[in-house]
Amino acid sequence: MKVLVKDLIRVYRLGNVEVQALRGLGMEVKEGEMVSVIGPSGSGKTTLLNIIGGLDQATAGYVQVGDVVVTALQPSQLIDFRRKSVGHIFQTLNLIPTLTAAENVELSMIAMGASRGSRRKRVKQLLETVGLTERANHKPDELSGGEQQRVAIAAALANDAPVLLADEPTGELDTVTAKIVVDFLVKVNKELGKTVIMVTHDPKVARVADRILKIEDGTIKAALTPAQIVKEEGAISYVDQLRARIADIEAQLVKLDEDFKAGKISGDEYVERRQNLKQTKTSLDEELHRMGVVT
Ligand SMILES: Nc1ncnc2c1ncn2[C@@H]1O[C@H](COP(=O)(O)OP(=O)(O)OP(=O)(O)O)[C@@H](O)[C@H]1O
Ligand SMILES: [Mg+2]
Q1: Ligand 1: does its nearest atom lie under 6 Å from the Cβ of 19?
Q2: Bridge partner residues of 12 (DSSP)
Q3: What are the phi and psi torsion angles at 201 (to 5°)?
Q4: Please, how many CA atoms are within 13 Å of residue 266, restricted to the half-sphere of its CB?
Q5: 8 Å CB contact between 104 and 155
Q6: pLDDT tens digits for 35-59?
Q7: Contact by Cβ (8 Å): 28, 39
């Protein structure tokens, strides 16, 4: 499901003081795409996600999710929209401390009126998706930070919404755990075909997406590819460089398919270029493997 944002403005009024959280922001996320939104604290990232997700209302501008014009919805319609279309992972975890991992995930399904049997089945599937089958009966304080965050991802997937919004899903986590959590989001994007918008302040986290949008003072200042953000980061590991090159080749393969379908290149050229790219990708994959990285 695609997400389209145009000229989005959000002004908060606190007494006489006005805060312009969003100042005419525009962006487009394609169906099935994973996009990172990166930017400094206070730049409007959470505000943006909350408006896309129907939790907050725009002062002006246009937001469309799939066929729904979110900015035209009444508050009662927003609730329905959220239930059907959006999975939301919050900046501050919102797991219930007295419930187990399985119950926390199940909770988000009760409001949808699913039967007990179907809920149980789905909870099992979801915990498997995030690799927590063994932790189903643990309460949040019996789980690590990364595991808690994966429970939150499973809960956000419970309504099988086509759009997943993740606000700093790795905020409190160390680098290694952050990578594990983010890899699950990538998996959800790739394997379940969800459109994912992930907010983060960490370039290392951001670069797993197809595209990275840089937000500053409530507008998008730049759009970067994973390879570009890796370059911007300066010192980066060899493994990360390999990953960036693989991502870049994958993008080139998609573009090549598009060009061929659009009749821009001949069949022969298509086959040859495709083979070359595939070959390069295979050797990069093998190199990653030799480095001990599981892809
Ligand atoms: N409910 C609110 N009332 C008043 N001002 C708000 C409100 N929510 C956000 N703001 C202000 O709007 C601006 C953008 O806030 P937002 O939470 O979107 O930033 P952010 O990019 O998510 O920051 P962080 O990285 O710290 O989470 C900030 O200046 C913030 O103080
Ligand atoms: Mg925020």
Answers
A1: yes
A2: 19
A3: -105, 0
A4: 3
A5: yes
A6: 999 988 889 999 999 999 999 999 9
A7: no
Quick check: CB of 92 below 6 Å from ligand 1?
no
Return the CATH fold of 32-43+74-234: Rossmann fold (3.40.50)
- Note the pLDDT tens digit of each residue in 162-172: 999 999 988 77
Cα–Cα distances in angstroms (integers) from residue 263 to residues 30, 95, 255, 266, 275, in the given order: 22, 51, 12, 7, 18
Contact 150, 95 (CB under 8 A): no
Neighbours of ion ligand 2 (CB under 5 A): 45-46
Cα separation of 158 and 108, whole Å? 6
Tokens of 166: 């993740």
User: From CA 19, how far away is CA 210, in angstroms rounded?
Assistant: 31
Cα separation, 11 vs 58, whole angstroms? 8
Strands 60-65 and 3-14: antiparallel
pLDDT in tens, 145-188: 889 988 998 999 888 899 999 999 887 777 778 888 899 899 99
Strand-pair partners of 11: 20
As a whole number of angstroms, the distance between CA 183 and CA 63 comes to 28
d(CA 203, CA 212): 9
Task: Check if 10 has its Cβ closer than 6 Å to any atom of ligand 1.
Answer: no
Query: What tens digit of pLDDT does each residue of 226-238 get?
Result: 988 877 765 456 6
